[in-house]
């Protein structure tokens, strides 16, 4: 059994999902709670003791056996979970070690905080499954909603599609680690064929740059990235600098493209960045068995990112220990936002907008909010303590012009202190909360404008570009290579298959840590037993027993190999490597060691 619940700042349930057992148990729990409350009310109103409710438990158990496809009332579930939620929030405010796990009849519950004081409660008896669900949901929400999570309980256009995608999150492969890897086995198999198409696809990416701006293109085949192209020359590794979790979430949400082309918006972070980019993701079924995915900056991305930075800076003001320097940084951000808004023309009445109908007035409005916050902060800071040294780094506006830049704000703009060290007046708390609310409203409006612009401008330009570039000869060339065809996929099943090298392993996973790529293989006859080779603990070498889904026993052998200092070869060959292999139960450990090294040698040879 496993499932999750997402709770907003007001302690209301905004999302709930899980497998059938989880839903059935929750349904039974809700029904029991309602029955119990009804029995209590009946006993009080009639003046009779417990005799009126002695038959209720049995009837509630019967009535709870309903179809699992049910819609829960969030208020009922909130009532059940509220004590646990309040316990977590109170302990997290008073101590540095909040209660983040608790046992219950529904399994162990883990609680974690993300974004603007939102909570994710994950239910599962298995520790690994609980971690997988938690990581998957947090990664998915970060990619789909970003800062718009504050509007997830509305029917706004900006959160409509994200909510549809979130429903399918648990049906996809769950991730156990905060660090994900791109599987390159299919890419390696088709590498020779793809090399013949480099000129064709590079031309598509370069020409798209003229129509829709700087872009990064991914060629997908059966859900895997088999080629990447960049409109900017000299940057061959398109995946470098991008958050792999976000990228894989985007890929998994765009591969089911039935239409010729479609456009959606996602939040994409850089490798170490905190401020995400709001990007248009265009997917097109240009060639048979493949999907072209184009990542391009949304029309309002620059202003959205500055506003989100402003919001994060206001959050940090609550715990700042060096207000003079921190105020200086926020002033710079506010000045940049002021300039960006003043340079904007008012939107026509065809757009549904409030702030951007009069950007100049919006700029004055946010300046006035900031002036009030600054005035209150200076009032608090009159008796400030001696400041502590910290990083004073900051980005220039020119660094953020591209939505796909690898620039990040990993260096904190503020010094963090514990909650009990801060000095906060009620007025400042109200002003900061009000300021964040208005910033979120403007971000939501800008995202809505970006969606409209993408639909009426970006997507038509993309389609026009493809019509001009993709000629019948190009289509004939691509389809003649039979990439993704039934015959080629059957050959793929034998590619880097251990038995082809006379090795006895049933499955393996090779991870190239430095480049966040991997090669995974599971023999067809064991896919029901071994549905996923989990990432294991970072240990140099070990072996252990493993029980499959059917109860069958296997042996796991794992080892790590440090990176190479040699300059020749691919980045994967030079990377530090972790390899996990699954063998028959009574496999000799020394033989397992020799076979895993032999397979790794074959794989590295293929990569070279």
UniProtKB/TrEMBL annotation:
What name has this protein been given in UniProt? Protein CBG04489
GO terms for biological process, alphabetical: gastrulation
Q: May I have one GO cellular component term?
A: gut granule membrane
Q: Where is this region: Disordered?
A: 44-65
């Amino acid at each position: 059994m496993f499932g999750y619940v997402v709770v907003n700042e007001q302690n209301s349930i905004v999302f709930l999902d899980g497998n059938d057992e989880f839903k059935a148990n929750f349904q039974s729990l809700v029904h029991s709670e309602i029955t119990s409350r009804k029995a209590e009310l009946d006993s009080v109103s009639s003046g009779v003791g417990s005799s009126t409710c002695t038959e209720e438990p049995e009837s509630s158990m019967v009535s709870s056996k309903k179809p699992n496809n049910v819609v829960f009332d969030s208020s009922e579930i909130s009532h059940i979970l509220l004590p646990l939620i309040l316990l977590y929030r109170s302990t997290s405010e008073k101590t540095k070690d909040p209660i983040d796990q608790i046992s219950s009849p529904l399994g162990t519950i883990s609680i974690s905080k993300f974004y603007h004081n939102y909570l994710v409660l994950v239910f599962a008896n298995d520790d690994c499954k609980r971690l997988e669900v938690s990581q998957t949901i947090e990664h998915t929400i970060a990619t789909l909603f970003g800062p718009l999570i504050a509007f997830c309980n509305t029917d706004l256009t900006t959160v409509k599609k994200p909510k549809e995608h979130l429903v399918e999150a648990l049906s996809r492969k769950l991730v156990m680690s905060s660090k994900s890897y791109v599987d390159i086995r299919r890419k390696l198999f088709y590498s020779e064929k793809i090399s013949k198409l480099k000129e064709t696809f590079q031309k598509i990416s370069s020409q798209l740059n003229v129509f829709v701006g700087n872009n990064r293109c991914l060629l997908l085949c059966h859900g895997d990235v088999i080629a990447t192209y960049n409109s900017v020359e000299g940057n061959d590794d398109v995946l470098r600098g991008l958050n792999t979790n976000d990228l894989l979430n985007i890929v998994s949400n765009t591969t089911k493209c039935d239409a010729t082309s479609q456009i959606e918006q996602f939040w994409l972070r850089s490798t170490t960045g905190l401020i995400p980019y709001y990007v248009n993701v265009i997917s097109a079924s240009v060639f048979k068995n493949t999907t072209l995915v184009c990542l391009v900056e949304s029309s309002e991305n620059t202003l959205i990112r500055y506003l989100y930075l402003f919001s994060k800076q206001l959050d940090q003001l609550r715990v700042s220990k060096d207000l003079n320097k921190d105020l200086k940084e926020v002033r710079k951000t506010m000045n940049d936002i002021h300039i960006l808004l003043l340079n904007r023309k008012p939107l026509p009445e065809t757009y549904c907008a409030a702030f951007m109908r009069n950007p100049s007035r919006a700029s004055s409005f946010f300046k006035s909010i900031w002036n009030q916050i600054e005035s209150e902060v200076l009032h608090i800071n009159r008796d400030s303590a001696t400041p502590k040294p910290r990083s004073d780094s900051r980005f220039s506006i020119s660094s953020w012009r591209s939505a796909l830049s690898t620039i990040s704000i990993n260096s904190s703009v503020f010094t963090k202190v514990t909650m009990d060290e801060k000095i906060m007046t009620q007025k400042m708390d109200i002003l900061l909360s009000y300021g964040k609310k208005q910033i979120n409203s403007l971000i939501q409006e800008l995202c809505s404008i970006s969606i409209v612009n993408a639909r009426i401008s970006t997507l038509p330009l993309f389609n026009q570009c493809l019509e001009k570039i993709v000629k019948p000869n190009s289509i004939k060339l691509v389809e003649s290579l039979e990439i993704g065809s039934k015959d080629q996929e059957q050959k793929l099943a034998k590619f880097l298959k251990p038995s082809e090298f006379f090795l006895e392993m049933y499955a393996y996973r090779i991870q190239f840590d430095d480049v966040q790529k991997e090669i995974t293989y599971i023999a067809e006859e064991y896919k029901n037993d071994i549905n996923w080779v989990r990432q294991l603990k970072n240990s140099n070498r070990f072996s252990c027993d493993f029980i499959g889904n059917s109860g069958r026993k296997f042996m796991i052998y794992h080892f790590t190999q440090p990176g190479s200092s040699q300059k020749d070869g691919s980045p994967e060959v030079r990377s530090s490597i972790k390899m996990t292999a699954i063998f028959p139960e009574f496999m000799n450990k020394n033989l397992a060691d020799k076979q895993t090294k032999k397979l790794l040698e074959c794989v590295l040879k293929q990569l070279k």
